[in-house]
Amino acid sequence: MRTLISSAFVSLDGVVEAPGGEPGYRNSGWTFKHVEFLPEAFEIKGREQQEATAMLLGRVSYEAFSPVWPSMEDFAEYKDMPKYVVSTELTDDALVTGWGPTTILRSVDEVAALKETEGGPIIMHGSATLNRALSDAGLIDRYHLLVFPLLLGAGKRLFSSTDKDAQKLRLVEHEVYSNGIQKNVFDVVR
């Protein structure tokens, strides 16, 4: 079974919306506007590219990343990596070219089936709605969280407010940086 890793920039109050400057959110770009940039705080992002063998995205994140990530040197390792986009709306003709093979999945069940295939870790960036659905379905195996010392109030949250049984996590890696960012890597305990 493949490991599904959720990677997110998250404010201390749980907001994950528009960390890189995506339009339409009041605090858009909060990861670089309000916190000093320290390269060492983002080391895990390079490691994710080295360790992952596929990328999983929701439609909104795919539509935000696909026009820019293919040509960005910071994300070069992802260029030819297989990608899976979970969407009930996206069509094959809407997929970008030159960003590796991309498959559209239509449901959480199809993500569960993907996890049963042979291969290495699958990394999921952004994709707040998808993250909540996969977390609630018990399909996420690990969380890579960079927690920013900000309270943003309103905005899309990483986790749903669904009433469910407690899900235990085991902290396997952590670090605090001088700019207040905390790296927390959690494995889901099954």
From TrEMBL:
Domain Bacterial bifunctional deaminase-reductase C-terminal: residue ranges: 2-182
UniProt GO MF annotations: 5-amino-6-(5-phosphoribosylamino)uracil reductase activity
InterPro entries: DHFR-like_dom_sf, RibDG_C, Riboflavin_Biosynth_HTPR
SUPFAM superfamilies noted in UniProt: Dihydrofolate reductase-like (SSF53597)
Domain of life: Bacteria
PANTHER family named in the record: 2,5-DIAMINO-6-RIBOSYLAMINO-4(3H)-PYRIMIDINONE 5'-PHOSPHATE REDUCTASE (PTHR38011:SF11), DIHYDROFOLATE REDUCTASE FAMILY PROTEIN (AFU_ORTHOLOGUE AFUA_8G06820) (PTHR38011)
Native source organism of the sequence: Saccharopolyspora karakumensis
Entry's Gene Ontology BP terms: riboflavin biosynthetic process
One protein family per Pfam: RibD_C
Stated name of the protein: Deaminase
